[in-house]
Amino acid sequence: MIPNAMFRAVLVFALSLAAARAEVRLHNLFTDHMVLQQGTKVPVWGWADEGETVTVEFRGQKVSATAKDGRWMVQLKKLKPGPAETMKVSGRRAGQVGGPEQHSMIEVRDVLVGEVWLASGQSNMEFAMRGSFNSSNDIAQSANPNIRLFTVPKLKLNAPTNNVKSKWVECEPETVPGFSAVGYYFARDLQKALGVPVGVIHTSWGGSPAEVWIREQLMMDDKEYKRHPRYLRGFPRQIPRFSRTVEEREGGRRGSRPALQQAPAVRRLETSRAIQRHDRQRHPLRHQRSHLVSG
Asked: Which of 83, 107, 275, 280 stands the most exposed, by the fewest C-beta atoms within 10 Å?
């Protein structure tokens, strides 16, 4: 016979596990200090147990959805700028047979409504405030509770992900130095011009080709990109040849160390130039048009 104390401990543990399984979760775009877009329907989404009812409450609105395949989404009606408020997200599901309902609750605090912009690109967009020209005074004076910043961390993946490990922060001298300089100055001037809260989502990666921002299948289905699978498969075999070329050109100036160890930036540049030369030979008219447009 199981002692009463042990039985109660097992029961509490089992109930805690059930409650943990019922925990509703939000995408990490929805954190304290976030900004929601004004003047349009606003989707809010996340994860929950199958069949769990999730309710989002904000600014007098109360919208519910049922989790399907572990995911849920609701849409808030058009919102107007105003003082910061708290968003409540609650989950409710039926308990075990004969047991009580299970509930979970998330509170997202200090939520503003205004303009939300995406700052994306390569090195020009990635360039941080701490390195921009004469930025020390601007950083020192950057505190503004109506500007919020969100940085998407760099992550190498072969397929799209459904979440990111980041959070919104207030614009302050402590949070601005590592943020995109273009993104910050844009937010600062826009907030001053419009007089509403501004949130900027910074997601950039210096030197990244356009293709890595596009779903692979989308490129493969496009006739202009059907040649890429062969290039991508052949690229690893071409690296030794490109590396030898770099070593021959740089060896006299950089000592006896192999180019693979001493000049990764030069190696990448030479590889890129070689591929571009090959591409121009195959598609001269395309590159001529691109030059005329960009020039």
From this structure: 83
